[in-house]
Write a structure and sequence with these properties.
Elements: H1 3-31, H2 42-65, H3 80-102, H4 109-128
Helix pairs in contact: 1-2, 2-3, 3-4
């Protein structure tokens, strides 16, 4: 498995673990109320589960499984820097959105984080685009 895929899958697992823990706290509070403030974690839980876990895991597996061509430099294409930048931007975006949703004083971070996530997806698509070819090409 390529190094970038390993990093993406590991980061996705970290996001899953934190999201699972936050969800467990909220579920426990639903059964035995201990602190109503725990429900402020809901948007952070959703962000970590949907973008941090699912999107990042999908990107990591896609980088690994998409066709690699011997004629492309480094077998993964010329733009592995795009894929690494996408990894950094996606994680920075998830953290920024989570911080903006958790602390109201940092709510300006949420739109910046969404922009970083969108840029990450764009860079990842730009990386994968040359690797998608019809059979026999």
């Amino acid at each position: 498995m390529p190094r970038l895929s390993v990093w993406m899958v590991r980061a996705a697992l970290l996001h899953l673990g934190v999201s699972f823990t936050l969800g467990a706290l909220m579920l426990y509070d639903k059964a035995a109320p201990f602190n109503a403030e725990v429900w402020r974690l809901w948007p952070v839980h959703v962000e970590l589960a949907l973008v941090g876990w699912i999107v990042q895991l999908t990107m990591g597996v896609a980088f690994w499984i998409m066709p690699r061509f011997a004629r492309l430099p480094n077998r993964y294409g010329r733009r592995t820097t795009f894929a690494w930048a996408a990894f950094g931007l996606l994680n920075a975006g998830v953290l920024a959105v989570s911080a903006g949703q958790w602390w109201t004083a940092l709510d300006v971070l949420a739109p910046a984080g969404r922009a970083a996530e969108l840029a990450a997806v764009g860079l990842f698509v730009a990386h994968l685009w040359p690797r998608i070819k019809p059979p026999g090409a």
